[in-house]
Amino acid sequence: MTSGPEHPVRVRLEEVLADVWMLNGEIIEPLSLEPAIRNIEETIEVYKRIEADDAYSTEGDQ
Fold first, then answer.
1. Residue range 25-56, pLDDT digits in tens
2. N or C: which end of the chain has fewer CB within 10 A?
3. In 1-62, where does DSSP find H-type helix?
C-alpha cells in the first residue's frame, strides 16, 4: 500500500506535524494544539505499521 518512509502522504504528515508543533508554542496558554499533535502522531504511527506489514507480506511472497 505504501512505499516506505518517503511515501508522499507520510512525508506531508511529518511536515504538518512540525508546523503544528511550532504553532502550538505561539498560541495563548489556555489553548493547545496537543489533540491535533496526538492525532497526527498516531496517524504517522499507523503508516509505520502499514509499512512494516507490507514489508513482512512482501518477504513472505518471495
1. 999 988 999 999 999 999 999 988 887 777 76
2. C
3. 8-24, 34-61
The C-alpha angle 54, 59, 44, rounded to 5 degrees, equals 25
* 7 Cβ contact partners less than 8 Å away, ≥ 6 residues apart: 47, 51
Amino acid, res. 43: T
**Length of the chain as a residue count:** 62
Torsion angles phi and psi, residue 45, rounded to 5: -60, -40
Q: What is the mean pLDDT of residues 19-23?
A: 94
Backbone angles phi, psi at 23, to 5 degrees: -65, -35
